[in-house]
Amino acid sequence: MARWVVTSAWPYVNNVPHLGNLIGSILSADVFARYLRLRGEDVVFVSGSDEHGTPIEIEAIRRGVDPKQLTDQAHEYVSKLIREYRISFDNYTRTESPVHKSFVQEFMMKLYQNGYIFEQDDVLPYCPRDGMFLPDRFVVGTCPYCGFEKAYGDQCDNCGRLLHPTELKNPRCAICGGPVEFRKSRHWFFDLPKLQEKLLRWLQESRLPPNVKNYSMNWVKEGLKPRSVTRDNKWGIPAPFPGAEGKTIYVWFDALLGYVSATKEYGIREKGDEEFWKRYWFDSETRTVYFIGKDNIPFHAIILPAMFMASGDPYTLPWYISSTEYLMYEGEQFSKSRRWGIWMDEALELLPADYWRFALIKMRPETKDTNFTWSEFTRIVNSDMNDDIGNFVHRVLKFIKSRFGNKVPEPGEIKDLDKEYLDYILAAPSRVGSYIESFRLKQALEEVVELARRGNQYLNAKAPWEKIKTDPQDAATTMYVAANAVAELAVLLAPFTPDAAERLWKMLNMEGSVHEPGRWLEASKPLLNPGHTLGEPEPLFRKLPSDFPEKVHELLAEARKKVMEKRPPLLRW
Ligand SMILES: Nc1ncnc2c1ncn2[C@@H]1O[C@H](COP(=O)(O)OP(=O)(O)OP(=O)(O)O)[C@@H](O)[C@H]1O
Ligand SMILES: [Zn+2]
């Protein structure tokens, strides 16, 4: 059995995560981690709040407070939301965690000692009106590669290229909008060109998906440039290099190492074991899986593996990177900094987490940018969740309660139709599982819906409500098969809608929790025996009114007003 480390990109805490962050990273990772645990695998699932860097520093200066004071509250608020969405992190930590800060300093010193960090004057944008160097997202200009006019100093959000601020055409200060000057400042650089060949070979041989692999290989082939790992910011992890006093570590180098430090912190806290993390990260058999949006590809497929290589320690390199395209809202990309989208907290004011989890997985932008629309959301809730799954469950449980004394009937002769559906449901865990294992979460959930759809067809074809009068044995067989399909659904829904799955488990009067390790494997045999007494049936999901898409903007405005009052200052606008 392999060990797994499942990770989700660290959300920047300058805002509440939006539905794009959820599907691009947090939720997709959770479905995968939950699935692995249900298979009894050894999993550590980590992420945390990314809190350093300029946007938060500037916000703190503007408000005249300490940035940590702002992020303490923001991290707590986001952590609570993550729990409310049932994201099953083993450790959701933060970049201000002491374990993380010292880990980053020690790690960066290793790169320095191994000769991968060199010191050099950098020419950086400076705003004479604001009196400061403008790092990363604080200088905006035209991308030299694709012509996008709102590219940032470190990356173009349109074509995804990593940039140096001097490459931008017509660079302007993002704070005041005026032109920038370029001034010299001493910085410490990561010598990526030294790793060029090694990276290329690894990429070539890796099992990364084609979109990640091709993009990264092209980028490496064009020739890697050294990247500066320091910044002139005060808010961040102090750079540990001799002579670098007053500089901090660039947020990306800081946050990427969080995957490792969060595992370390988890081992110390939960197992009292300082060395726990090495059993995962220093074992080439460990499968590390990263869930990210496509703009994060270069950092995970190039920078992070390069850092691991340069450390000289036996880190396991990324086993898989599942990167999504963008979820769009009304034609534009969800964005924290531009405050565009639907936010995790306001969504919960409208409907419980399961609805968002289900609908987002069904809309997961796996192959192309995908528009989140309220009409599609309504269709998914009303048709897939209610008409297909909810209705099937209800029909089966109600009928067994009214006609079989709420006990799973003893089946009679298993005929063709029965066998066909029974075989189909018992093969479902492996069918759904293989889609999850190939990171096709959307298709995996579609298979779960299909199981219920076929269940409804099976009931219609077998008509047990007629047969109970003429051939009660056959009605009993039908309901035995159908009841087992319902139990199967509880297990298959567990990674996707954990609360509904648990409620269904209780309605079936099953022992323990549906989320127990190994449950998925048990489900390849019938889960319900004849004679088993079921619990009380109740509706699994509820429908949205048909005018929901028209009303939703009004509902959302109310919800936003309400959550703004609960949010801590940094997240309020
Ligand atoms: N619309 C989206 N669809 C899918 N994934 C997304 C989307 N927006 C962001 N992500 C992913 O969410 C993760 C966290 O991103 P981050 O906290 O930087 O938020 P952001 O919305 O991208 O911020 P900003 O808009 O300010 O750049 C990243 O992996 C990112 O790729
Ligand atoms: Zn570009």
Describe this structure in words.
The two termini are 48 Å apart. By secondary structure, this protein is α/β, with parallel strands linked by helices. It contains 21 helices and 17 strands. The radius of gyration is 26 Å and the shape is elongated. Helix content is 49%, strand content 14%. It has helices at residues 19-38, 54-63, 67-84, 98-113, 196-205, 210-221, 251-256, 258-271, 276-281, 297-311, 344-350, 353-362, 374-403, 416-426, 428-437, 441-462, 464-470, 472-493, 498-507, 519-522, 548-566, and strands spanning 3-8, 42-49, 91-94, 117-127, 132-133, 139-142, 151-152, 169-173, 181-190, 227-228, 230-231, 248-249, 287-293, 320-324, 327-329, 332-333, 370-372. The protein has a five-stranded parallel sheet, with helices on both faces. Strands 5-4-9-10 form a four-stranded antiparallel sheet. Helix 14 (416-426) packs antiparallel against helix 16. Strand 4 and strand 5 (132-133) form a beta hairpin. Bound molecules: adenosine-5'-triphosphate and zinc ion. Zinc ion (ZN) binds at residues 143, 145-146, 148, 151, 156, 158-159, 161.
Number of helices: 21
Mean pLDDT: 96
User: In order across it, which strands form the biggest sheet?
Assistant: 3-2-1-13-14
Q: How many β strands by DSSP? A: 17
The proportion of residues forming helix, as a percent range, comes to 40-55%
- Secondary structure class reads alpha/beta
Binding site for Zn(2+): 143, 146, 156, 159
Motif ('KMSKS' region): 333-337
Subcellular location: Cytoplasm
Organism: Pyrodictium abyssi
